[in-house]
Amino acid sequence: MKKNEELFYLIKSLSKSEKRHFKLSAQGNESAEYLLLFDAIEGQKTYDEKAIKEQFKDKTFIHQLTTIKNYLKNRILQSLRNYHSKISRNAELIDIIRNVEILYHKGQYPICESELKRAEKKATNYQQDLLLFQIYDWKRKVHQVLYPQDMETIKTITERQKNTLKFTNEYIDLILANIDPLQFSLSHKKSVSLQNKTLKTLHKYRKLLIAKDHNKAKRVLEDLLKEWEQQPELLKEYFTMYFSVCNNLLGYLVFKKQYKEAFVRILLIKQKAQAIENISAAFIKEKLRLYNIELEIHRSLKDLHTTHEVIDEIQHFVEEHKTLVPGNYLLSFRFQFANIYFLKNDFKKTLHWINAVLNNQTKKDRKDLITYTHWLNLLAHYELGNGFTLRYLIDSMKKYLKKHKNIAVYEKKVLKFLSKTVEFSSKQQRNAFMELQKELLTHPFPENVLGYVDFNEWISRKI
Question: Among 169, 336, 355, 441, which is most buried by a count of CB atoms within 10 Å?
Answer without folding.
Answer: 336
